[in-house]
Amino acid sequence: MRVRHKPWASDFIAEHSQYAIANPEQYKGKWNEVFGNNNPIHIEVGTGKGQFLTGMSVQNPEINYIGIELFDSVIVTALQKVVDLELPNMKLLNVNAKDLTEYFDANEIDRVYLNFSDPWPKPRHSKRRLTFKSFLALYEKILVKGGEIHFKTDNQGLFEFSLISFSEYGLKLKFLSLDLHNSDFEGNIMTEYEEKFSEKGQRIYRVEAKYMNEIK
Ligand SMILES: C[S@@+](CC[C@H](N)C(=O)[O-])C[C@H]1O[C@@H](n2cnc3c(N)ncnc32)[C@H](O)[C@@H]1O
User: Where along the chain is substrate bound (predicted)?
Assistant: First the structure.
């Protein structure tokens, strides 16, 4: 993603700390207190400009959502949407996903969304892909037993890599679609990238991957 420097972004984020949480490590194990309820928590890693997660928050008020985004100049657009909609069930963290376990405790998260993650096409960069095994291990540490990853992408190479990575890790694949927009999947909320790529005629791939670590 091309990231434009926005010098005002950090001030805007600081001014809206009820939505863009500063020092999120303080709330590890306490996110239900932050939201003021015990509803399930779903996170999106690489939220970008926030269209998907704000849409999900409006559609599902009984679920709490947390968007994780590395760049302040990008997350600020998501924050503007949350502020405009005054969403009580959505928070944003301007942090790097590699540090997820600093912010979330074991069993604290119910689902991870990955949407149009950076493909890192060069083989030597494969470890940076958000579906690489080290990231799957990270998600497993914060997810409930039997938690799920829901993944969408337009990138065939990343999708192929991710299916192999999920299955090698022992996740169970469900609801696999090689053409989401021409499938019977209902209630899809498009991300900014999804709109852009599907307008160009690209197919959208989607899969759900479930950790098989339930207590028997
Ligand atoms: C290609 S964009 C997709 C944005 C959005 N999900 C969409 O579909 O429109 C990928 C986003 O993931 C973010 N990202 C990549 N690696 C990340 C990481 N390690 N931690 C947090 N965000 C990350 C990038 O900054 C970028 O905004």
Answer: 122, 154, 191-194
Query: Which residues' Cβ are closer than 6 Å to ligand 1?
Result: 1, 46-48, 68-71, 74, 96-98, 115-118, 191-194
Domains by residue range for the chain, with CATH = 26-210 (3.40.50.150)
Adjacency order of strands within the sheet including 143-153: 90-93, 64-68, 41-45, 109-115, 143-153, 205-210, 172-177
- pLDDT tens digits, 59-94: 999 999 999 999 999 999 999 999 999 999 999 999
Distance from the alpha carbon of residue 170 to the mean position of ligand 1, in angstroms: 25
* pLDDT at 215 > cutoff 60: no
39 burial class (0-12, 13-18, 19+ CB within 10 angstroms)? Answer: middle
Q: Binding site for substrate, residues?
A: 122, 154, 191-194
Is residue 197 within 8 Å of residue 154, measured between CB atoms? yes
**β-bridge mates for residue 45, sequence order:** 68, 114
The rounded distance, in Å, linking the Cα atoms of 107 and 110 is 7
Burial of 14 (0-12, 13-18, 19+ CB in 10 A): exposed
User: Which residue in 72, 69, 47, 71 sits closest to 57, CA to CA?
Assistant: 47
- CA distances 54 to 78, 120, 154, 175, 185, Å, are 8, 26, 21, 23, 19
Mean pLDDT, residues 3-22 taken together: 86
